[in-house]
Amino acid sequence: MAKMWEGVTNGITDSLADDFNSSIRFDSRMYKQDISGSMAHAEMLGNKGIIPKDEADKIIAGLGEILADIESGKLKIDMSCEDIHMFVEAELTNRLGNIGKKLHTARSRNDQVALDLRLILRDDIDEITALVKNLIGAICDKAEENKAQIMPGYTHLQRAQPVTFGHQIMAYAMMLLRDLDRLNDTRKRLNFSPIGSCALAGTTYDTDRFFEAEKLGFTAPCLNSIDGVSDRDFCVELIYDISMIMMHLSRFSEEIILWSSWEFKFIKLSDSYTTGSSIMPQKKNPDMAELVRGKTGRVYGDLMGILTTLKGIPLAYNKDMQEDKEGVFDAVDTVKMCLKVFCGMISTLETIPENMKKAAQKGFINATDLADYLVKKGEPFRSAYKISGKIVADCIENGFVLEDYPIEKYRSLSDLFDEDVYTAVNLDECLNKRISFGGTCVKSVEAQIKAVRESL
Ligand code: ARG
Questions:
Q1: 193 and 293 housed in the same domain
Q2: Residue ranges making up the domain that contains 29
Q3: Whose CA is nearest to atom 10 of ligand 1?
Q4: Domain CATH for 150
Q5: Does the beta carbon of 28 sit less than 6 angstroms from any atom of ligand 1?
């Protein structure tokens, strides 16, 4: 097929080169953005008298019909076209003849692709934002149900101090709140309009880039036309934001996988979010969480990919930049899917309070409280720590826990011990004494849930 650029070259390329060069396989998803960008452009051309107004109107109507026909399935996107921009323009010219050929006045595919990509990613950011909010909502609900549910908190994956399940999972809500902030920030910087930058240097026509920017919901046109066509920072930033979301989901996944194992059994994942084994009848596998953890690696790959692609590209447009789309679309699609599945998995999981409590009782996670007890009775912290350590060692050797260690034995190590030591090491007491701001006591977790819900 002869190409639109036939002129200096004969426009006939090798079919292998054609396939290699073409991007329609992955940029056809931008058809809506391409059409709305073209509509705004045609309207501006008509307003400024660069093309006759009635012709601009015909172009806008024609583009509207193309959009409707694509959406209804009447018009199939022709995959033999080089990219979506070529397809829409060729289809318009098919329908309108010479008038269709006027649409490309005072623009270039370079500003067109930069525009389409910003438009589609802006919508994606809004969708991802909504999905993150849903997930935060689901976490808050689960935390509310489990705000008094005691479990061991870990450091080094060793039982450390008592926390509540609600407190533990609200930590993930905090991460996701920061993710929302990052998305919003990226959106702000993305939201400048490249259209009218043309190939790179601007144009000799008296265009109105402010009109186009406003029409398409941008803050303003990009200030420098060379930057307008060359900037892909918004892709990098978005993939970075998505990488952070994935990293958070991946850490959460890791805990879910551990908690649902036979060794922990703190939670039971719903059958609808687990799979069985083809050979071992007893298996109930946390595949969703494992896949989220696995896909995180691929998204990081997308981030390294775009950074590396961009690092050596001189100004302005170079065809390398066509490589921006597959990675960013992959990251966007992946995070959307992960967020949806994750939300379902969290809302349907059930906690197993007895097991969490049992684990909390066995790990001497009240040893810090024992030391604090002595400190409050006048013992300096370092020596209180030592005495408590000796008691724990003796408990382990003789099969006691702090809750049933005999009072005479306590007293043999320090005469500051009294019957009230049993209240001090009672797990519920230990929990609810942690009243510091952001801490694990029920009231504090309630306050965290409330603050997060309000900020949504
Ligand atoms: N398909 C191209 C891309 O995705 C559109 C821009 C083409 N511009 C050019 N000068 N060849 O980057």
A1: yes
A2: 23-105
A3: 110
A4: 1.20.200.10
A5: no
Q: Both tokens of residue 228? A: 């307008």
User: How many Å apart are CA 202 and CA 179, to the nearest integer?
Assistant: 36
Please state whether the predicted TM-score (pTM) of the whole model is above 0.90.
Answer: yes
Residues 207 and 243 in one domain: yes
Is the pLDDT at 5 greater than 70? The verdict is no
> Counting every residue, how long is the chain?
456
* CA 322 to centroid of ligand 1, rounded, Å: 6
Ligand 1: residue whose CA is nearest its atom 4: 322
Residues 266 and 335 in one domain: yes
Quick one: which atom of ligand 1 is closest to the CA of 22? 1
Residue 129 sits in the same domain as residue 267: yes
Amino acid 418: pLDDT = 94
What are the residues facing 212 on neighbouring strands?
none
Are both 353 and 371 inside the same structural domain? no
- Find out whether 427 and 366 touch, Cβ atoms under 8 Å: yes
CB atoms within 10 A of CB 436: 9
| Residue 443 domain-assigned (yes or no) | no
Ligand 1 centroid, distance to 194 Cα (angstroms): 14
Identify whether residues 79 and 222 lie together within a single domain.
no
Collect all residues with Cβ–Cβ distance below 8 Å to 76 and sequence separation of at least 6: none
Confidence check: pLDDT of 416 > 80: yes
Same structural domain, 316 and 386: no
Q: Are residues 147 and 247 in the same domain?
A: yes
Query: Annotated active-site positions, please?
Result: 156, 277
CATH (domain of 396):
1.10.40.30
180-236 pLDDT, tens digit each? 999 999 999 999 999 999 999 999 999 999 999 999 999 999 999 999 999 999 999
Contact 194/228 with Cβ under 8 angstroms?
Answer: yes
Q: Which atom of ligand 1 is nearest to the CA of 84?
A: 1
191 lines ligand 1 (CB under 6 A): no
Nearest residue (by CA) to ligand 1, atom 3, is 322
Answer whether 110 contacts ligand 1 (Cβ < 6 A): yes
Q: Is 260 a member of any domain?
A: yes
Q: What is the mean pLDDT of the chain?
A: 95
Neighbour count for residue 158 (Cβ, 10 Å): 9
Q: Which two tokens stand for residue 133?
A: 């909010």
Flag whether 13 is in a domain: no
Residue 2 binned pLDDT confidence (cut-offs 50, 70, 90): low
Residue nearest to atom 2 of ligand 1 (CA): 322
Beta strand 267-268 pairing with 350-351:
antiparallel
- 55 domain residue, yes or no: yes
* Ligand 1 atom closest to residue 317's alpha carbon, by position in its atom list: 10
